[in-house]
Request: fold
Amino acid sequence: MKQNLYNKVFDRHVVSRLSSGQYQVLIGLHLVHEVTSPQAFALLRERRLKVRFPNRSFATVDHIIPTDSKERHRPLQDSLAEEMLQAIEKNTKDFGVSYFGPESGKQGIVHVIGPELGLTQPGMTIACGDSHTSTHGAFGSLAFGIGTSQVADILATQTMSLGRLKVRKIQVDGKLSPGVYAKDVILAIIRKLGVNGGVGYAYEYCGEVISNFSMEERMTLCNMSIEGGARIGYVNPDETTFEYLKGRPYSPQGADWDKAVEYWRSIASDADATFDDVVTLDGSSLAPHVTWGITPGQSVAVDENIPTVASFSESEKPLIREALEYMDLQDGQKIEGLPVNVVFIGSCTNGRISDFQEAARVVKGHKVAPGVKALVVPGSEAVDKAAKALGLHEVFREAGFEWREPGCSMCLAMNPDKLKGREICASTSNRNFKGRQGSPAGRTLLMSPIMAAAAAVTGKVSDARKVFGLK
Ligand code: SF4
Reply:
């Protein structure tokens, strides 16, 4: 039978069938960060276990690290953050795991550094104690977000138990209009299929729009698979993938490169592979999207109105009312024109060099609106360096943005970057849950980098196509 990538890669990594009906699966790459690893390393110490394959785990620090250079010196002002930083430094040293700390040139958000170092490769099984590990599926890998106990399993055995998923092919046809990006595509997909629509599934993204995406756009897309309920998301590897990976520090070199590319081609879904479900979208008809509610599925195109409660089923209405009340919005109101207090461009969804290039291109010559706090936070030290080499930091600074040091920043606010009170934030991150950005009453509107740039310069939700004359 012709197979899809998910089943080919899964089958090749099965070690054994478990009595539970699940499978023990070999994990090729384990990415580690400071939040979910301390308890796992403690468990290893308690059981007197070693890390089974230290060369298959790589660690960095992202969630708790301050992004203001004045707050980055040691010891960190936040004693809990300092404790976590010291813990990952000690744990990785004691167990022989590579650690990319601040000033190493390789520190950054775990889902940004894996690909840019060439650690993330097609056909791999990848795990990390973070929900947005699905990002790495952009390379044609099976990439799972896991919990602390599974982090310990992988450190000790390099395997974890997994059930087999169903696979839904999501085909996005046509060509995107100017001003429409991967972020808009994934918000539209989640809006269409719902935040639980992908439960039990792997999402395979394909079609003309996806084939034309750069690797960074594919990462944005796959990053938010988890927000649609899918366990993982992936794109079949192709020439764009190979071109991105060639010459990266951990990519195969010389003859190994040719062998690797041959293998990577072989694991792509067969032309007539079967799927458990197929969904199609017309990319040509998409407009920039903005979330209005408290889940990533509650979005509208920027030129649409917020839906009316009456348009939902009885079972859906309570969540819609809860979202409107929390966001202090009326159903049927326009989203365009809603004032914003803070703008955040960054995160593992949209904190890569192409995100900043696009945003800087439109921001040039504009000024951040009075009273708006606007942050640009590179996803990694490498992104920071590349952006500075292009002068992007100066473009943003001249416009009135703050250019920060690499980290998760305001995506999750486990660091000093937090909303205050009822502030509304135009954010390029991936979650708009209640209180996600640090204030229990803070409000998040998810959007693409150029939509966030448009919000920054107008002080309100705006159609970037109109603000910047994109045609
Ligand atoms: S940027 Fe946000 S979603 Fe991504 S790893 Fe950091 S906290 Fe998690």
